[in-house]
Amino acid sequence: MRPITLFRAAAWLGVVVVSSSLLLARWGVDPNLPIGPPALWERLVVGACLLALVSAMALSVSGRKRVPPSWAARAVAVAAAAGVTGLGVYMRQDALGKGFAGDMLSGQGWLWLMCGAGILTGAALGSFGLKAPRAPNKPRRRR
Fold this sequence. Notes:
Layout: H1 3-23, H2 42-61, H3 71-98, H4 101-106, H5 108-126
Helix pairs in contact: 1-2, 1-5, 2-3, 2-5, 3-5
């Protein structure tokens, strides 16, 4: 298995984890809370899911067979992953400023969002350790 395949799989795992914070997790410790983020941050979490999707797509779609993604695609993946992390940090700071960070940060939603952001960032940064993209050598035809 090639290393780029592992980074692509990790990026898609990050997308699943970030999306699960939107669809499957409670954003507080109260069992009566509905699943999903509070209405205040719902747009931010949806934006984080879309940025996670952009990051994974940049690593997956841009390379040809046996050729790693271009440097520009890797930079897009890192920027999108940093955007997911930035949105998570912004939500944490907003919760601290409004005084309900203890309840929000004790729930699973924010934790899953930041875990997915960490997986995405690791996969995107790890792809920079691969060789520079080159087209495969074409075999010469003998006449």
